[in-house]
Amino acid sequence: MTNNQKVGWKLDNSYARLPETFFTDVMPSSVRSPRLVILNQDVAESLGLSVEALQSDDGIAVLSGNKVPEDATPLAQAYAGHQFGHFTMLGDGRAVLLGEQITPAGERVDIQLKGAGRTPYSRGGDGRAALGPMLREYIISEGMHGLGIPTTRSLAVVSTGEPIIRETELPGAVLTRVAASHIRVGTFQYVAKWCGVEELKILANYTITRHYPEVKQSATPYLTLLQEVIKRQAYLIAKWQLVGFIHGVMNTDNMTISGETIDYGPCAFMDTYDQATVFSSIDTQGRYAYGNQPYMGVWNLARFAETLIPLLDEDDEKALKLAQEEISKFADLYQANWLTGMRAKLGLFHHEEQDETLIKRLLEMMGKYKADYTNTFRALTIENFNDESALLSSEEFMDWKTEWEQRLSRQEESKGSSQQLMKQSNPSVIPRNHRVEEALKAAEDGDFTVMERLLKILADPYAYSPDQEEYCKRPTTKIPYRTFCGT
Ligand code: AMP
Ligand code: MG
């Protein structure tokens, strides 16, 4: 039996068959002494990979980049992007795509090693990643998956046994990322800017085949592609808002065309409700603040729409008008997703004219009393109003609650089914920053049990189980939490 057969690798690489300007063939760099730090059994199984074989020396050799599976054609993808509004040439500077695993369910997913060494797109970087940030991506992406939010997944983290130089020396690591694909808004920007219209069409057709096969039926496939991408992003960003997730670096190279959340750098979850919340140390202007995410989402989509202009109509002006029309629909699409989600968070099954006002009043009160976002909805769900914030004992909240209860009583559904809906819509736990940090600190000291416990809790955030109570608490320290990019 070959190693491939033992592990279950079944790789194709359709991306490698695209025009050669789209990527560069590159092997992952080898590392000194790889050690498997964490392996995701669920993901492994869904990929048709043997957990046991992945844990063997041969399996770990692949997860660290020391060996590539027999039928892999490793490559680094070229892309561009607007970083904080400024257009730049980018590309996989520290990631290598091993190929596309064909899963037992017949799906095609990218297997990418992040932190796999230098590539032609590394610019000044070392191509490497540190253990802390790779485990952080693992925890938060799996947390997002548990929350039911489209996201790339994490198969494994391997420590390399090599130090990497940042502000201090840090242990190096490689993350195996699993994604529907790594096609980004920035991929289209790269092709639109530096390749011809034929190549652009090839990329668009490839994207349609891979992520939006139903679009092939359309008489205007590229316009329909734009519409569908806008729909998925309106859905995704509404989901982020509903759980208080702040991506932190919504540059166009970090927005996928598949509609999955990608690139867990400086992201973090909001504790205290505040539209202006920013965690990223470099986001000094608050460009990617919590309340700005929908606006930045549509800004990125406008950049995507621009790349499609040559495919939308022969007449540029007409094409631009078509693109603008679609972009202008984002706001309503987003709002509809958000309202549906918010209604569910309040146990409401149907639409009533005043719902939006009811929701906004609650959020305003949360802001005023500096209430914890997740815990306020949790309190409403379990009807436990002994929260630490002053909100739930305030008179204005009592008035609001009376109105909410009246609203609930106007619907036909039982109280029980309302509560059920709330439990499914309001996570009891989120990857709280202090918990994530605690897990990472322990891991750096060689104790992985804290992280494993946290991951177990985050796998089912809607369970409302007693063992989650401990993880619901907001942090006690008042030091503002800071996150970092380019780690
Ligand atoms: P990010 O902020 O993680 O989205 O990365 C932005 C760009 O910088 C991407 O093109 C990355 O591939 C590249 N990059 C980030 N870190 C490194 C590194 N250590 N070495 C080389 N390139 C990097
Ligand atoms: Mg990125």
User: Judging from the principal axes of the Cα atoms, what is the shape?
Assistant: globular
Distance between the termini: 39 Å
Class by alpha and beta content: alpha+beta
Ligand identities: adenosine monophosphate, magnesium ion
State the share of residues found in helices, binned by percent: 40-55%
Radius of gyration, in Å, reads 23 Å
Strand content: 5-15%
Mean pLDDT across the residues is 96
Descriptive notes:
There is one protein chain. With 487 residues, the protein is an alpha+beta fold. Helix content is 43%, strand content 14%. Strands 1, 3, 7, 8, 9, 10 and 11 form a 7-stranded antiparallel β-sheet that branches. The longest helix has 23 residues, at 221-243. The structure holds adenosine monophosphate and magnesium ion. The site of magnesium ion has 3 residues, from loops.
Features:
487 residues, alpha+beta, single chain, binds adenosine monophosphate, 7-stranded antiparallel sheet
Short characterization:
43% of the residues lie in helices and 14% in strands. The chain is an alpha+beta fold and 487 residues long. It is globular.
